[in-house]
Amino acid sequence: MATIMTLLNEAQLPDSPSARLDAELLLAAALGKSRSFLRTWPERVVSREAHDLFDGFIARRQAGEPVAYILGHQGFWSLDLEVAPHTLIPRPDTELLVETALALLPATPARVLDLGTGTGAIALALACERPSWQVLGVDRVAEAVALAERNRERLDLNNAAFRASQWFSELAGERFSLIVSNPPYIPSADPHLTQGDVRFEPSSALVSGADGLDDIRLIVEQAPDHLESGGWLMLEHGYDQADAVRDLLLTRGFARVESRRDFGGHERISLGNWTC
């Protein structure tokens, strides 16, 4: 029978940039324990059942499947969220949207919209931090809406709600103090689409035309019809798209346009203020 240390040392994940972390997360899940348990009891013998489950997890990871999909959950902000293959996996860089939104608006009543909500990560993080806000998340994929609602119910966040909508299609007449979105922004010919975890994520949540900006163009064009005077639009985009997104915002008539940098120093989100 193998020990925890043996299984971790023998796990073969050569194509993963975080091989040791992946192995620890997968073994902890197979054991139903925390990662700290692995470090505390490295000589603990692993049962045959847990060993087989871990081997299955490792085989799936060797095939490239993201750890989040294998485990069925992913941490984002202060939340643990259910994830599934029909939604994008929440990433740490997207927490910049949450951080910026919280700093931008006061903790007073406001209506906030999260476009393309997926797992509900952004909407739920904002609702958790600002109980006085009413946060609506929309997504065109019915399974994503249902998943976000399950996350909302489990987290017991009654100031968040989710609805099916293709961007603004089902929001006629509704206005918000803040609209946030992490839309698709990868160019259709980008070689990274055939590499790493993104191979398993839905292309509809990643790809947006030849230059990656088709959905952002639509959002920027239509957002003013759904913003209160003085409201803000905030968008995540690719590391090299900030100039183009700022130009789109300025051309549409947004003021106070700027971009913010992510943890890697890239201009990752852009925002603008709407006054009418």
Overview of this protein structure:
With 276 residues, the protein is an alpha/beta fold. The protein has two domains: 4-63, Helicase, Ruva Protein, domain 3 (Orthogonal Bundle); 84-274, Rossmann fold. The chain contains ten helices and nine strands. The protein has helices at residues 4-10, 19-31, 35-40, 48-62, 67-71, 95-104, 121-129, 142-155, 214-222, 242-252; strands at 73-76, 79-82, 110-115, 133-139, 160-164, 176-181, 227-236, 255-261, 267-274. It has a seven-stranded mixed beta sheet, sandwiched between helices. It has a two-stranded antiparallel ribbon with strand order 1-2. β8 (255-261) and β9 form a beta hairpin. It is elongated, with a radius of gyration of 20 Å. The mean pLDDT is 92.
Looking at this protein, list some descriptive labels.
Helicase, Ruva Protein, domain 3, 2 domains, 276 residues, Rossmann fold, alpha/beta
CATH architecture of the largest domain: 3-Layer(aba) Sandwich
Number of domains: 2
- Uncertain stretches of 5 or more adjacent residues: none
- The number of helical runs is 10
The CATH class of the largest domain is: Alpha Beta
Please give a quick description of this structure:
This protein is an alpha/beta fold and 276 residues long. The chain has helices at 4-10, 19-31, 35-40, 48-62, 67-71, 95-104, 121-129, 142-155, 214-222, 242-252, and strands spanning 73-76, 79-82, 110-115, 133-139, 160-164, 176-181, 227-236, 255-261, 267-274. The protein has a seven-stranded mixed beta sheet with strand order 5-4-3-6-7-9-8, sandwiched between helices. A two-stranded antiparallel sheet has the order 1-2.
